[in-house]
Amino acid sequence: MNEDLQDFARSEGGLAAPRKEASILQESEEKFWDLFQNLQIGVVVHGPDTAILYSNPMASRLLGLTTDQMQGKTATDSAWSFIREDGTRLPPDEYPVNRALVTPEDATSGSILGIRRPEPEGSVWFKCDTRLNRNANGQLRQIVITFFDITMHIRAEEALTASETRYRRLFETAKDGILILDAETGMVVDVNPFLTELLGLSHEVFLGRKVWELGFFKDIAANEAKFAELQAQKYVRYENLPLETADGRRIAVEFVSNVYLVNHQEVIQCNIRDISARTRAEAEQAHLAAIVQSSDDAIIGKNLQGIITSWNAAAEKIFGYSASEMVGQPVSRLVPPDRQAEEEDILARIRSGENVLHYETVRLCKDGKPLDVSLTISSIKDTAGRQIGASKIVRDITERKLAEEKIYSLNAKLEQRVKERTTELEAANKELESFAYSVSHDLRAPLRGIDGWSSALVEDYGDKLDDQGREYLAQVCGEAQRMGQLIDELLQLSRLTRAEMRREQVDLSAMAHGILAALRQQERQRQVETVISSGLHTMGDPQLLQVVMQNLLENAWKFTGKCAEARIEFGVIEKGNASGLISTQTSNPPTTSSPVFFIRDNGAGFDMAHTAKLFAPFQRLHRQSEFPGTGVGLASAQRIIHRHGGRIWVVAEPAKGATFYFTLPTH
Amino acid sequence: MTNRPILLVEDNPSDIKLTQRAFAKSNIANPVIVAEDGQAALDYLLNDAGNEMPAVVLLDLKLPRIDGLEVLKRIRADKRTRLLPVVIVTTSKEEQDMVESYSLGANSYIRKPVKFADFTAAVAQLGVYWLALNEAPPTGK
């Protein structure tokens, strides 16, 4: 053993024994050498000039150089390539040997260095201690560098950091809220940004607070109790926990808490998921499902192969099959055998993207009864727009069909009845006509006889009768003639309602002129002032309107017969003015916007109390001896006005005259 | 003034007598042949041989068996009588009767008035017109 080695051994403290016997020394030296060679710490011993005196195998392994390669190398040798912890190259003046030389103390420890090795080994890391060995007079003899392999440790630390970074990132970017609590105290240790944003609270609000002290939990007591439960059970889950955000919004969250150990310390992790959107969607879906379920119409889902996929309550009610019986079954089960092709046709139309609306057909119930239905079928598409099936709304239209049939049959019955009535009416009209004909023909013949033979009696035997007898016979003739006149007027009245009506322009003013001129001609001795508004036209049947004008003007003429200053007026009240001009005592108030014609006289008039009788046939308000008449004229006038769709009414006062008003629709 | 007979087609006995009386009153002396229904009138004019053609036929419309319009139609259908003056004398004032009568070739249409004086005047005028004023068409015989 050379001197250097002895020095090194002495410096290590284990070999400080004095040289007593060579054999003991020899043995000790061999033991030391053996220990040195097998030491799991790399040892490199430099001389004062920094050249390596010797090194052990572990040093070779760590530094990547053989013992021979190291022998004699100095600290400045460029073969060294130490790196720092941060991966940068270590400058030569910071090499362990050089550092040891400049450090005031003889021993340093703890600097961590690495040596880059080619992959796959990667870098080797070690903790490096240095010690200067001096002789008795303090002269530097050796520099001892020891390398303790900490590669494993460094790698584990690196992995931990990487892992920590990864999980931190996960924590920071998670789309769930995460809350870390101290399991002992319930104090918040950490909170992720998602939760602070979700609740609108800053990070600081959470930290150091007990979880149930945080305002956003609705029921603090319950949560403290839950916390106890969590501590006991290590796991708590809330399905749907209501939270309130800083700005007062209510949100629903799913809240899951787990207790786990970190370095023998219990930690609680709370995962908080905002399920508001999901809850809303679920509520919406439930709402839609409820609508489908509560519909009166059967709503049936089917796929494009015609297999039933859903079956609502109304479908159960209408068809009698339960959902479990029908889901998975072909929809053709509902189709009567003679209509199978129809369902194929509908499916084809749906597959081609067409919708089927209000398709009226027949389907079969469970009990085999046919059912009148109206089908509305729409295709169902997935979110990508692909057709995946069809929804079928089936309306039971039995009631409607029944109602329709009822309406048809009622209509048919009604038509039949109208036909029958029309026939009856036609028959009645015919009968009336032949009756009128008979009356006209047969009733007059005896009258002619009465009159004729009375006249014959007067002519042939007049000399045998006294004046009274002749007077009586004159009465007989007069009555016969009067009856003849009555018959004639009755016939005329019946003709008015039977005759076909024409519709043309009629000049009422000209008509009035003509009628009054004729009346004046008959009674030239009378002085009557007539005032006729000119140019009054209307639409109607000229012959029938002639009868109206004739009757009304003849009446006016007749009833002014006893007037000293008779006045007859024909005119019109333009629409809109009618109500103002007519007394409230009208017999038949106007409700029309057509022009109102009037014929006014200042003659005998009558008491308005009797107007009800006025327009009825054969009703008279004056004695025959006063004003003769048959009572048919006004009845005829009213009938004609009514046939034209107009109205007629009268305003009168005894001894002051009467005004007859009438309207004739102009359309 | 012709002396040819007047054919009165009338079923009402009272009317027959009154007509005859009216002729008498009007000094019309022509023989009055009475047919009391349509068939009798046609028999006289068309079926029975040797009857003298009347100067005028006074034809009522409402008749038993064959009515007046049918009688008129057959008179006009036969070449022997198609020009024979036929005056409708009736109680009917129905427009339809008038129109049909004239359509079938009636020479005149007179409505019998109820008043006997008017009736007499009408018959007198008829006589004067058809027997004196009117030149009857030549008869087939």
Features:
A: 667 residues; six-stranded antiparallel β-sheet; five-stranded antiparallel β-sheet; 20 helices; 25% strand; B: 141 residues; alpha/beta
Question: Can you offer a commentary on this structure?
Answer:
The complex is a heterodimer of chains A (667) and B (141). With 667 residues, chain A is an alpha+beta fold. In chain A, 42% of the residues lie in helices and 25% in strands. A six-stranded antiparallel beta sheet of chain A has the order 2-1-6-5-4-3. Chain A starts with a helix and ends with a strand. The model of chain A is unreliable at 578-590 (pLDDT under 50). By secondary structure, chain B is α/β, with parallel strands linked by helices. Helices cover 43% and strands 15% of the residues of chain B. Chain B has five helices and five strands. Chain B has helices at 13-25, 38-47, 68-77, 95-103, 116-133; strands spanning 6-9, 32-35, 56-59, 86-90, 108-111. Chain B has a five-stranded parallel beta sheet, with helices on both faces. The longest helix of chain B has 18 residues, at 116-133. The interface between A and B is medium-sized, with 23 and 19 residues.
The neighbouring-strand order within the major sheet of chain A is 2-1-6-5-4-3
How far is the first residue's CA from the last residue's CA of chain A?
149 Å
Q: Could you tell me how far the N terminus lies from the C terminus of chain B, measured between alpha carbons in angstroms? A: 19 Å
Low-confidence stretches of chain A: 578-590
* Broad shape of chain B: globular
Q: Categorize the overall geometry of chain A.
A: rod-shaped
Largest sheet of chain B: 5 strands, parallel
**Helical residue percent of chain B?**
40-55%
> What is the tally of helical segments of chain A?
20
Structure class of chain A: alpha+beta
Number of strands of chain B: 5
Rg of chain B, Cα atoms, Å: 14 Å
Helix content of chain A: 40-55%
* Strand tally of chain A: 23
Query: Number of helical runs of chain B?
Result: 5
What does the average pLDDT of chain A come to?
83
Low-confidence stretches of chain B: none
